[in-house]
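Researcher: Batch entry, complex prediction.
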Amino acid sequence: MTTLVRLEILRTLRNKRYLMFTVLYPALLYVFFISAYGNGGTVANGVAAKSYFMVSMATFGAVGAVLTGSAQRISLERKSGWTRQLRLTALPGRAYTLGKIAACAVTTLPAIAVVFAIGAIEGVDLPAVQWLGLAAALWLGSFVFAALGVALGYAAEPDAVQPVVMIVYMLMALFGGTWFPVSDSLRTYARFNPVYDYNQLASFVHGGGVAGFPIAALAAFLVLFTAAAAHLYRKDARRA
Amino acid sequence: MTTGTGEVAAFRNVSKSYGRVKAVNGLDLVLRPGETVALLGPNGAGKSSSLDLLLGLREPDSGTVELFGGSPRAAITAGRVGAMLQSGGLMSDVKVREIVELACRVHPRGHGVDRVLATAGITELADRRVDKLSGGQEQRVRFALAVAGANDLIVLDEPTTGMDVSVRRQFWEAMRAQADAGRTVLFATHYLEEADSVADRVLVLHKGRLIADGSSAEIKARAGARRIGFELHPADGAASGPDFDEAVLRALPGTVGLDVSTRADGVRTVRIRSADADAGVAALYAAGYYPRGLEVTSLGLEQAFLTITGEQDRTESEEEYVR
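Model: Structure tokens for the complex:
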């Protein structure tokens, strides 16, 4: 099984599209946001723009990496018959999905690291503990979206999966505070958007303390998405 | 019935429907160790469905499927079965060596990568990206995945699709080597000459039913192995002219099928399919005929196959008519 996981990671890192969309794209957007807001610019509640967007672009890249890495590939590989071929090996059925999630988990790290590096260069100043805590929080949070990606990969056919992923991804980002902070009037609803909760994990570096509700909400989403993924996987296995 | 060690695979009264289509209809079949078995049938005959059931990719609606006396999954987990599927997609963004290595590593009785690459004849492709291969090359990579370990049974679904003639020959050489090593091989194909030259047992599947099961020679014999063709001219006697009686020809020994057409000048062209052409021709002369332009030709497996499936279709439509 480790062979499969290693190969999944290797092929994801080899894929140029992955690097473009999940590492380069959020990094460029981040640079753009910093210059648009100016060096001393702030967003709502007086949080520095470069610090706010460092988090939101890291989550943007991580969610993108995880959704496309799992949903698109699973959907395509179901269609091509690779998943059937794997079922003819001694690997347990879950190995394939676990391999995908492991590959996702590894590939979110560059997306987060590159944006953090730009942030540090641009003058985001955090204690070492907070840098590490933030990276860990964002890394762990990405597993929620890996589970969602697996579910979408088993739910959608290959010709539909790209638009489906894009729509889900963009809507969650739009109302999740990725490109602009969520206004007070929308916050009541945004709490049920996993991307919003994901961004809120960073509240402790914005002087907010550890966010209890977002952690609980993300845990609930993780359970929900995992259950959906498991159900859809079993349904798919029956259809061969 | 006991599931002794003599059974590689067993279908017992297995049926599987997709919606209203009966893909597999009451299939009973046992494969024994060391056999090389060809599975023939027109498109939609249920070949792929049967293989899916055999490999446990699908569950039968009724009946049981066993591999080595247990479930298909157990046989796969034990590393006793290797398979090459018709629609077996491959991983993208990986090299040939990497995907073959994966197959070798996860196989409980896996071989070394280099050995498997050589067996499948893809050593020179080892560093190529899987997504950059031609159809025939991809087929050989799939074959490599099927022989990545010491399997007792190898299942191949239309393995030579997309291969050109020389590659196809190489492929069957590799396949024969597997069979010579004592492995049981089951392959579905629509190239009948492959079945004829490689298999020692041929199964004909039609509309989800097994309608023939025997050696290639037996299948041909059943279909009427030879065709006797000749003309009867009225000038050659009353039997060929006014007294002509089809029933006499039909009664010739070995006759399986008869086709007579008459031209305006009274010349009849006769075609007989016969399971015993020698006796048939002798009896023809004995009955007072003078066949002109006599030809006795051997039927290929292909014609035998068409004959058998055609007969089955006729029988079924007659059954429908009676109902």
